[in-house]
Design brief:
Layout (H helix, E strand, L loop, with lengths): L2 E5 L4 H12 L3 E6 L10 E4 L7 H5 L4 E4 L13 H19 L6 E4 L28 H16 L6 E6 L2 E2 L8 H10 L4 E4 L5 E2 L2 E2 H13 L4 E5 L5 E2 H12 L5 E4 L14 H7 L7 H10 L17
Parallel strand pairs: 1-2, 1-4, 2-3, 4-5, 5-6, 6-11, 7-10, 8-13
Antiparallel strand pairs: 9-12
Helix pairs in contact: 1-6, 3-4, 5-7, 7-9
The structure holds nicotinamide-adenine-dinucleotide (NAD).
């Protein structure tokens, strides 16, 4: 059975990739520095990517999906610049340099590298080949991640960079808008919206995102791919979906937005569709309903130990 290392396995997208890869017949090794409830078939490695355990592990697997990182455009805690550098850029360098060059590597960048689809003079989806215009430290760190890969993964062998657009579904990170709004609406508190209800987001279904990542990896593809739906929803649509799921209309407070909050995100999905097919559409209400009814995430170590690295 081929062995797949999933970094960030305790994370929102990582948990879905682990489940989908296990169902696809991979022997999965999950790595995360947080403890998590690993599945019965999963080898769980609780370690930081900068730890000594990582280098030998990278030589023992057949492919890697690298999702570990410091996500979140709005994170402004004091040490955020250091964490973004270490967890996004530095950790990617560890993986890219340690994984033998002939073995497939898929890395999560971000749609934030585009700086939004609504820039002056253009109203069209973002294409992978257009000049990048990152706004804010998170987006800049993801551009640096892509530069690390361009520098280290030269020569033959598949390297895939994916740029996911807003991912939603079971286990969404609590700092993300839908998760925050759902929690607020359920608690009878107001929903805080940055900028305007007219801002638009290309929202993707986490299950579809995980499946597309594995199709790209399995297919031996190389290059950069948007992981978006190709359609957009206004933030007003998001609020309507939350209201429909919770069963009551929450109070909405529109507050000033930061420059890093772009007006519109919108993926050109032509390249993805040509390579492995697009992401099947899921209605926003269905996605929010799935998010609302999902089991809370349990954080403790489980799964099978990795023999060489217990
Ligand atoms: P997440 O925070 O839920 O998961 C990331 C995981 O990586 C965490 O469990 C964390 O503990 C782990 N991690 C971070 N640094 C590590 C290190 N040095 N060593 C070991 N583990 C480490 O985030 P997510 O939403 O699942 O995002 C996964 C990836 O996809 C991230 O790189 C993120 O930037 C990217 N991304 C996410 C979205 C989205 O909408 N969720 C959109 C675009 C890009």
């Amino acid at each position: 059975m081929p062995r797949l290392l999933v970094t960030g396995a305790a994370g929102f997208i990582g948990r879905h990739v682990v489940a989908a890869a296990t169902a696809d017949g991979w022997e999965v090794v999950g790595l995360d520095r947080r403890r998590w409830a690993a599945g019965p078939a999963e080898h769980a490695v609780v370690a930081d990517l900068h730890d000594a355990v990582t280098r030998p592990l990278l030589t023992e697997v057949d492919a890697v999906v690298h999702l570990a990182g410091a996500p979140g455009v709005r994170d402004d805690r004091p040490d955020v610049a250091r964490r973004r550098w270490s967890d996004n850029v530095g950790a990617t360098a560890v993986v890219a340099e340690g994984l033998p060059r002939d073995r497939p590597l898929l890395v999560a960048s971000s749609s934030s590298v585009y700086g939004g689809a609504g820039r002056v003079g253009r109203h069209r989806p973002c294409h992978e080949d257009e000049p990048l215009a990152p706004r804010g430290g998170y987006a800049r760190s993801k551009v640096a991640v892509e530069q690390v890969l361009a520098r280290t993964r030269t020569g033959p062998g598949p390297t895939v960079v994916v740029r996911p657009f807003t991912v939603a579904g079971e286990g969404q990170r609590p700092d993300m808008a839908l998760a925050r709004w759902l929690a607020a609406a359920r608690a009878g508190q107001p929903i805080e919206v940055f900028g305007s209800l007219d801002r638009r987001r290309d929202v993707t279904d986490v299950r579809e995102v995980a499946a597309a990542m594995l199709r790209l990896l399995d297919g031996g593809h190389h290059g950069t791919f948007n992981l978006g739906s190709g359609t957009t929803h206004s933030l007003g649509d998001h609020v309507d979906a939350v209201a429909a799921v919770v069963g009551r209309r929450p109070e909405v407070r529109v507050v000033a937005s930061h420059r890093r909050e772009v007006a519109t995100t919108w993926a050109d999905t032509t390249r993805l569709e040509t390579a492995v097919g697009g992401l099947a559409a899921t209605s926003l209400v269905d996605l929010v309903a799935r998010q609302a009814t999902a089991q809370p995430v349990v954080e403790h170590a489980g799964g099978r130990p990795v023999a060489a690295h217990p």
